[in-house]
Amino acid sequence: MVVIPLFEGVQSIGFSGPADVFSAANAANASDTAVAGEFRYDVLTASPDGSPVRTSNGLTVMAHRTVGEVAEVDTVLVPGAEGVPAVDRGTTDALGALVGRARRVASVGTGAFVLAGTGILDRRRAATHWEFSEELVRRYPGVHVDSRDTVVRDGHITTAGGGASAIDLALSLVEDDLGREVSQLVARSLVTYVSKPGGQAQFADLRDRDARTPALRKAQNLISSCPGGDLTLRALSGHAGLSERHFTRLFRAQVGMSVREYVERVRVATATRMLVETVRSPESIAREAGFGTETTMRKSFLRVLRVLPAEYRNRFS
Questions:
Q1: CA–CA distance, 298 with 72 (Å, rounded to integer)
Q2: Residue-wise pLDDT tens digits, 248-288
Q3: Going from the N-terminus, what domains does the chain have, and what CATH number goes with each?
Q4: DSSP letters along 55-122, please?
Q5: Is 219 within 8 Å of 212 (Cβ atoms)?
C-alpha cells in the first residue's frame, strides 16, 4: 500500500505522477506471466480530515480517508507544494505515527519540510526543491540537505527535488521493487528517462553571494566582470587590500564558500550563458570564461553541475 498524504496547496504532479508510474508498473508486471499477480501497487490518498483538497493549480481532489484512519501502509510518499507546505501540528503528529510504521518513506520537493517536521530526517541526507534548500537548512539544521541530486536516498528514506522529479523518484522505487527492466518499461511507456543527467545542480541559482565587507565585494565585482583574468588568491587579496590569510577567512565566512569555489562557480555560470546564447566552440568559451582549456571546463561542469558542457548546451540552448 502506497499512502500519499494530501494537504491544501499540494502540487498535483507530486502525487499524480507517481500514481501513474505505479499504475504503469502494475500493467507491466502483469504482462510478465512468470510474476503476474505476485506484486501490485495500491495507492491510497489521505487528507488531514478526509475532506477534498484544493491543489496549487486549482483542481479539487477527493481523499480516500484521513491520515489518522490509515491502517495498512508499506510506503508513505509526501508530495510538495509551490512553496513550503502549511501543515498543522496535529497532521504532522499523525503523519509521524504513519511514517513510523512504514517500510519505506519518500517525499517530493518541499514535501521534505513535512517529513522534517516529523523528525524522521534528522541526521539524514535529503533533497528538496533547490530554491528552498537553504530554507530547509534554516528550519531544520539537523537535516543534511543535498539539493544537487534529483533523487537522494538515505536508508529507507528517499527524497526528490521539485515537480517532475516525482516521476524520477517513483521510477527508482519501482526499480527497487520490480527490477530495472520493469522500471525501463514504465519509463518508455511514459516517454521519459529512468534517470536524467545533471540532477538539480544544473538548475541551481549561481548568482553571486554578496559579501558584507566592501573590500570583498570589490573582489567579487572583479571576478564577475573578468572571469578570464588573473583570479589567483594573491591577485584578489591584493585587489581587496587585504592579506591572503585575512581575505581567505573573511571570504568563506561571508560568502559561504572558498575563493576557489566561488571563482569556479562564476566561471561555470559565464560558460553556461555562452553555451546557450552563442554558437561559439567549447574551446573558445573555455578560454574566455577563464578555464584555459576545454578539459578543465569539462571537469568543472561535472563538479559543479554534474553535466557535461555539450549536454548542457543540447538541453538548454
A1: 49
A2: 999 999 998 899 999 999 999 899 888 988 899 999 999 99
A3: 2-201 (3.40.50.880), 214-316 (1.10.10.60)
A4: -TTS-EE--SEEGGG----SEEEE--BSSS----HHHHHHHHHHHHH-SEEEEETTHHHHHHHHTTTT
A5: no
